[in-house]
Design a protein that fits this description.
The chain has 501 residues and is α/β, with parallel strands linked by helices. It contains 23 helices and eight strands. A six-stranded mixed β-sheet has the order 4-3-2-1-5-6, sandwiched between helices.
Length: 501
């Protein structure tokens, strides 16, 4: 990574700034100037700007794209008006649920903003513990894919495939790890720019501290340590969470998932641009789509965001649960998830045309069949999981010492129904390992026997009680909704609280 000691000449700055700010409102331009003034003050004056580092975390979705463009405008504004400006670090985090389309969006945005070859920009891609300069074609590390795959399966089997616990709990802890690595990498940064409001930050911090306290963390000490204290609290939450998921003796899994907390030598300041900008995408559609080249890809754009394809899998899992576990139709379960998705899109103030676009992809039998095919293909490509493994996950037949195993075998694998005792013995580790049964279990579930045995001694999470950290996390998650459904036992109308994105 280049070390910068002064402001390099860049003849493209005036033209780029003119083009970029041509898409900003008068209010946003005032916000650019106000943010620039705040950064000059925080840096200790204009002369200190060349060595000052400002970071933006870039998820690759539409909202974070706008923040990157806004902070780039601030950087250019300072360069053109004072002859000096800060170093802009843009860090993007990846996981197996991020399709190539997201990286292509990021690449187009960087090109439009003139960042790829700017000496005042550090563009980083962070794949778990691996930090590299951004390139659109960087392959995902196999180790990261393997970790994500196991997390989805272990969470999913404990939660019967409910959307947020299955895909987001481990991922959110990984986001905390990403922030720690991105903010302290190569000497660290001075400022982290965020689009979250001060109120959102305080509410999130308070929720983290409550969860951390319940996990046995000394939160009073964490509160004295700023950003690093938040990360330390999240490390404690993560330790409790993954011990619950994998067992106390799973040192390898725990070490692989430990949240990075930086060090005491540098404490980045957080500056929010929330009050200076609008996050309604239709307010800056021309900037996002026309100038930055952002595309709402068919796979990456799934309901409430555009940086991840996992929401499409959440809908698929709800539909598979309806079909295979409850004996209803695939489309009934899908309709229930779409009800949740529409509610979330309205809460996020997504423009009506995007809401209609998302829902229109499911508005005919042929389209629903196509979406099912796409979901199965993505599950296989991203996580190496077949539909058979997804069905096993929503059935959760191995938890509670195989309480639902007989029903699972009868409905999904009738040829194995007479082998229930052999399967129970293998899961309970009774006697010598039955190699043929072990191979079949791994094939049908996607998990090795050791993880299946952990599930066997674990319970299906009861989200109505705070008895597990998994249930406590979902209790504090706002991305839930009561959907109208049918009780499969009685056939009577019912409601069910489901989560998603």
């Amino acid at each position: 990574m280049n070390q910068h000691t002064g402001e390099p000449a860049n003849e493209r700055y005036p033209t780029l700034y003119t083009r970029l700010t041509g898409f900003l409102s008068d209010g946003e331009l005032e916000g650019v100037k106000a943010t620039g003034e705040r950064l000059v003050e925080a840096a200790g004056g204009v002369d200190a700007l060349p060595g000052y580092k400002v970071m933006v975390a870039y998820g690759g979705g539409k909202d974070s794209t706008y923040v990157v463009a806004f902070v780039r405008a601030v950087q250019l504004h300072l360069a053109l008006n004072f002859g000096r400006t800060f170093i802009l670090r843009v860090a993007n985090m990846r996981h197996a649920g991020v399709p190539r389309a997201v990286m292509e969006n990021i690449d187009r945005v960087y090109r439009a903003l003139g960042l790829l070859d700017d000496e005042r920009a550090e563009l980083l891609t962070i794949d778990h513990t691996l930090v590299r300069p951004f390139h659109v074609d960087l392959p995902l590390p196999e180790q990261l894919v393997a970790i994500n795959r196991v997390d989805v399966l272990m969470n999913g089997h404990r939660a019967a495939g409910d959307g947020r616990p299955t895909f987001c709990n481990s991922c959110n802890l990984a986001v905390a790890d990403f922030y720690g690595r991105a903010a302290w990498f190569d000497g660290g940064v001075d400022v982290v720019m965020t689009g979250d409001s001060r109120r959102e930050q305080l509410l999130y911090s308070a929720w983290i501290m409550r969860l951390a306290k319940a996990s046995g963390v000394d939160v009073e000490e964490c509160r004295t340590m700023g950003f690093r204290g938040i990360l330390l609290a999240l490390r404690g939450i993560g330790d409790t969470y993954f011990r619950e998921l994998f067992g106390d003796d799973s040192e390898r899994e725990l070490a692989e998932r430990e949240v990075s907390t930086g060090d005491r030598s540098m404490q980045p300041q957080f500056i929010s641009v929330y009050d200076l900008v609008s996050y309604r995408v239709h307010d800056h559609w021309d900037l996002i789509v026309d100038f930055l080249g952002f595309q709402f890809d068919d796979l990456a754009f799934s309901f409430s965001e555009s940086d991840c394809a996992n929401p499409g899998l959440m809908a698929h899992l709800r539909a598979l649960r309806s079909e295979f576990v409850q004996g209803r139709s695939y489309d009934e379960g899908l309709a229930e998830y779409l009800e949740l998705a529409e509610e979330l899109m309205h809460k996020k103030e997504m423009p009506q045309n995007l809401i209609e676009l998302a829902l229109s992809r499911y508005d005919s039998p042929d389209k629903r069949l196509h979406r099912r095919k796409l979901a199965d293909e993505f599950a296989q490509e991203a996580f190496g999981l077949s539909e058979e493994a997804l069905v096993a996950m929503v059935f959760s037949p191995f938890t509670d010492r195989g309480e639902r195993l007989a029903a699972f075998l009868e409905r999904c694998h009738p040829a194995r129904a007479g082998q229930a005792d052999r399967i129970h013995a293998a899961l309970a580790a009774e006697g010598d390992t039955d190699g043929e049964i072990a191979a079949w279990l791994e094939d049908v579930s996607g998990l090795g026997l050791a993880h299946l045995r952990t599930l066997y001694t674990s319970s299906l999470v009861d989200f109505g009680t705070p008895g597990t950290i998994i249930s406590r996390v979902r209790a504090g998650d706002p991305h839930k909704y009561h959907v109208a459904t049918i009780d499969p036992a009685s056939g009577a109308p019912a409601t069910e609280l489901i989560s998603g994105r």
